[in-house]
Amino acid sequence: MKKILLMLSFLLVGHACFADVQNNVAENSTNLFVVIGAALAVSICWGRTGSILVSALAGLFGWFYVIYYAIFLRPNEDEE
């Protein structure tokens, strides 16, 4: 539940920060894509580490961390 609330709050705050007054659809869609990647990275990292600093760093990397997690880290968790 905490992961969902963290992700939703990050999405709302991030989208509000990147909102454009001119209603440029292409630019707003790109910004939303970046914010979703950052929110997903933060929630994945928070679930794995529980560290705010590491989660913030993962949020900066955004989609790169999500792809890294999907390729390299996900299969190793099933073995534990």
From TrEMBL:
The chain crosses the membrane at residues 53-71. The keyword Membrane applies. Keywords: Membrane, Signal, Transmembrane, Transmembrane helix. It comes from the Bacteria. Residues 1-19 form the signal peptide. The keyword Transmembrane applies. This is Uncharacterized protein.
